[in-house]
Write a sequence for this structure.
């Protein structure tokens, strides 16, 4: 029965190439020697560091975008992960009518198109919460709001797989409920916390719609917003360098998280290996 | 119940207290803003500055502005935009199925290191920023881009980047097809392939077994994939803006962006956001109910 139609394998390879080759070409063009983002004129570091005004290293607009993106992503991780872990533990155990509503409230942002959330936040920040200015504060709140759900999903999956027995054992041995949470459950949640952190970081770095709706002009441009406004203008390959840096940041975060997850799992005698670490991050059985 | 059994009365406050900060956050920054959209859409407009004034009391809502937008959607300039959005999304989701199903199927039928490698490669686009992927295509599709030149050598001369319907639809497919492949793969992976074998043993041909057993059994995965790709596509405006930037291809999202960000006609923008949400509410609630059901099944 296990026949493997070669056609499907071929299609899969073609798909993978289609999804990755254009990006590889865009990265290649960040090293173009000419001004063009479409015609290859030889290799150079001109648009990365060489050009004293327009390279990624020297162009103030590109540097601002990069800094904004990093600050926003770091801030989102710092706020979203603790908030989401508490929310996940609470929602997993809390049983009442209010809990059902809280569950719904938590799932809704996951399926709401970003433009709806961006528009709603823009309107509320300009008309109701006028103490919160557009720009970085509003963007940070937006990013936390839409990535909170990812943390909750990741942590709850881990909570379900841990089950109640470790905590019950701790309680039998005399720990009170808060101690059992702090000294037994929280350490067991470490992989989910690391996975959430990298997911929040990457979604924040990647986000365009919320950052754009809630930006207050050039000073709060993030990398995706910068790319959006410059991509159809005749900008130089420095734009490709900027985009490449952003992709590298996401993969760097992913790499660090995978290493940390693998190390943690090995130390705690859980099924180790890169594959299960990838499973933590992607929420899949690989 | 997954928590430690029968909580003593004195600690019952603990779980709501843990869930409290996050829930309050979501009320303040998700529920209230959602209500705020309605308050702007059904609110008033300052007669001098033309700025929107939200009306927070639903008893005082006035539906004149919203009605005007609705008339324009039913029988006016916005009608084309709505129809175009629906046609684009339906076409793009259909293409996503055509591309995604064979790949998910291939993944589900393979095991071992080769599958892990291909899965790894398929997950990569999730970590490559959406804007980077659009930037990559703009570079290839510009008049002297590599794709345009290859197309020219085989005799296809096209202006890909200015109001080309095909480019926008393919752009949507390119952006969102990974969101279809993964849930579809997850559901095909769990599929009971013995049923397919049984169908073959009982005399069904390969095609018949696929159409009458495999395909119906993969319906949950297909439905989840359709929702996960269609919802963001309906709200997408940047794919369109970057790959076309022409009124010929405008979608609902572009109109919302225009009214809210570029021309400050907030009442109209808010009304369109409400209309879009109403259009998508069915798909959203179906998906939420199905994941809530799955969660109950795994936690009991």
């Amino acid at each position: 029965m296990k026949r493997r139609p070669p056609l499907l394998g071929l299609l899969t390879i073609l798909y993978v190439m289609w999804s990755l080759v254009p990006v590889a070409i865009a990265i290649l063009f960040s090293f173009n020697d000419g001004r063009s983002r479409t015609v290859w004129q030889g290799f150079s570091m001109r648009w990365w560091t060489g050009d004293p005004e327009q390279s990624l290293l020297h162009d103030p607009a590109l540097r601002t975008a990069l800094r904004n993106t990093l600050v926003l992503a770091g801030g989102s991780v710092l706020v979203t992960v603790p908030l989401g872990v508490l929310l996940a533990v609470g929602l997993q155990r809390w049983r009442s009518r209010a809990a059902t509503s809280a569950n719904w409230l938590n799932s809704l942002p996951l399926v709401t198109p970003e433009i709806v959330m961006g528009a709603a936040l823009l309107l509320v920040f300009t008309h109701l919460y006028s103490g919160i200015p557009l720009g970085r504060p509003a963007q940070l709140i937006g990013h936390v709001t839409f990535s909170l759900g990812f943390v909750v999903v990741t942590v709850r999956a881990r909570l379900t797989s841990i089950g109640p027995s470790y905590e019950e054992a701790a309680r039998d041995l005399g720990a009170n409920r808060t101690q059992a949470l702090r000294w037994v459950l929280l350490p067991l949640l470490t992989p989910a916390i690391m996975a959430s952190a990298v997911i929040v970081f990457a979604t924040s770095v990647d986000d365009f719609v919320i950052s754009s709706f809630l930006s207050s002009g050039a000073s709060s441009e993030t990398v995706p917003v910068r790319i959006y406004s410059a991509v159809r203008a005749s900008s130089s390959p420095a734009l490709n360098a900027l985009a490449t840096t952003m992709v590298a940041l996401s993969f760097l975060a992913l790499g660090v998280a995978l290493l940390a997850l693998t190390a943690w799992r090995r130390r705690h005698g859980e099924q180790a290996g890169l594959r299960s670490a990838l499973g933590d991050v992607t929420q899949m059985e690989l | 119940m997954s928590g430690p059994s029968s909580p003593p009365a004195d600690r019952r406050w603990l779980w709501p207290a843990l869930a409290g900060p996050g829930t309050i956050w979501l009320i303040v920054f998700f529920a209230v803003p959602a209500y705020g959209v309605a308050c702007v859409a059904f609110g008033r407009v300052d007669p001098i500055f033309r700025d929107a004034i939200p009306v927070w009391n639903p008893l005082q809502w006035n539906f004149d502005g919203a009605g005007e937008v609705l008339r324009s959607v039913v029988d006016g300039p916005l009608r084309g935009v709505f129809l175009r959005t629906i046609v684009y999304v339906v076409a793009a989701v259909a293409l996503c199925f055509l591309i995604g199903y064979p790949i998910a199927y291939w993944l589900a039928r393979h095991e071992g290191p080769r599958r892990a490698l291909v899965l790894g490669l398929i997950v990569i686009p999730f970590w490559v920023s959406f804007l980077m992927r659009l930037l990559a295509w703009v570079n290839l599709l510009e008049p002297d881009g590599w794709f345009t030149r290859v197309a020219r050598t085989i005799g296809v001369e096209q202006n890909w980047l200015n109001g080309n319907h095909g480019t926008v639809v393919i752009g949507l497919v390119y952006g969102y097809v990974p969101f279809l492949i993964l849930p579809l793969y997850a559901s095909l992976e769990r599929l009971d392939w013995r049923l397919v074998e049984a169908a073959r043993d009982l005399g069904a041909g390969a095609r018949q077994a696929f159409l009458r057993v495999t395909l119906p059994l993969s319906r949950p995965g297909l439905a989840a994939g359709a929702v996960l790709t269609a919802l963001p596509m309906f709200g997408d405006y940047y794919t369109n803006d970057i790959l076309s930037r022409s009124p010929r291809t405008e979608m609902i999202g572009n109109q919302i962006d225009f009214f809210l960000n570029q021309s400050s006609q907030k009442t109209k923008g808010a009304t369109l956001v409400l209309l879009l949400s109403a259009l998508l509410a069915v798909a959203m609630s179906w998906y939420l109910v199905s994941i809530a059901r799955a969660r109950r099944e795994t936690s009991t």
The two ends of chain B are 6 Å apart (CA to CA).
